[in-house]
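User: I've been trying to design a sequence by hand for this structure and keep getting stuck. Would you show me what you'd pick, starting by listing the structure so we're on the same page?

Assistant: Good idea, let's start from the same input. This is the structure you sent:
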């Protein structure tokens, strides 16, 4: 879901601004579901995706096409938002689809935020990604071709329904049934970043051989927030191979203060010599 084109990035920024204008008055559960339904449609119908992203086609014409196709099938809030989005310019058709997915995930994050559950949503997406990574059989069942979609849906519901926030269940289900070319772990990481962006905060993956106390977590988050100028959400991963200290990953930056990291650095220096 990486949008690389400069034109598309500018359009995505406008689309997100329009979403924010809709959120206060929208039924957020319906909005997220409707935006995902639109995503499924434009992913499935390649001709439609090309038609509504064609830069040579008049924007009003594209909006009218969307109105004809979707009126009465999605909420007015979702319909108005999609009609606005298709009038923006996109570098390629797939980036329009990626933008709609971004809006759908953001709507689910806003839903969790409105319910006071956005921290839970972040944590649950992270924890589920680690469960999937560690359970080979579960990962195979959820991502492989062996189970039909209805069985995968039943498995997701058995694992998560009533145990996680509604937004978490929606987003995990979406990734399991429609991965859009990503690994399940990769999709969960992407969605987690979008949830963090909803709060305008960074996500730090902290690897440590022993768990951190609440006081240690609070101090570490405060230090990182001061260093990066943003609130920082900590995802803690226990890693006995780290031996001691912490390894912190924020975006593309890795701060490695573990003994193992320092030993690796020594080995590299010796090898270079």
């Amino acid at each position: 879901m990486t949008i690389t084109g400069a034109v598309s990035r500018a359009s995505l920024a406008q689309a997100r601004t329009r979403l924010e204008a809709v959120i206060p008055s929208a039924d957020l559960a319906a909005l997220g579901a409707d935006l995902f339904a639109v995503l499924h449609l434009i992913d499935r119908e390649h001709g439609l995706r090309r038609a509504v992203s064609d830069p040579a086609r008049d924007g009003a014409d594209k909006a009218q096409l969307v109105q004809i196709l979707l009126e009465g099938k999605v909420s007015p809030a979702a319909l108005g938002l999609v009609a606005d989005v298709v009038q923006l310019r996109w570098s390629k058709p797939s980036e329009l689809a990626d933008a709609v997915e971004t809006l759908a995930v953001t709507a689910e994050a806003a839903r969790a935020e409105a319910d006071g559950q956005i921290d839970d949503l972040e944590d649950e997406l992270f924890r589920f990604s680690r469960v999937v990574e560690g359970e080979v059989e579960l990962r195979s069942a959820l991502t492989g071709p062996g189970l039909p979609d209805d069985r995968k849906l039943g498995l997701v519901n058995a694992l998560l329904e009533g145990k996680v926030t509604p937004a978490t269940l929606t987003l995990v289900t979406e990734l399991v049934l429609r991965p859009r070319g990503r690994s399940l772990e990769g999709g969960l990481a992407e969605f987690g970043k979008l949830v963090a962006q909803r709060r305008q905060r960074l996500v730090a993956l902290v690897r440590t051989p022993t768990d951190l106390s609440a006081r240690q977590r609070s101090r570490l988050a405060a230090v990182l927030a001061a260093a990066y100028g943003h609130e920082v959400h900590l995802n803690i991963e226990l890693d006995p191979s780290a031996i001691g200290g912490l390894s912190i990953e924020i975006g593309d930056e890795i701060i490695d203060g573990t003994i193992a990291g320092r030993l690796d650095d020594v080995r590299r220096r010796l090898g270079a010599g």
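That's my pick for every position. To get oriented when you compare it with your attempt: The chain has 13 helices and four strands. The chain has three domains: 1-114, 116-180+187-199, 202-271.
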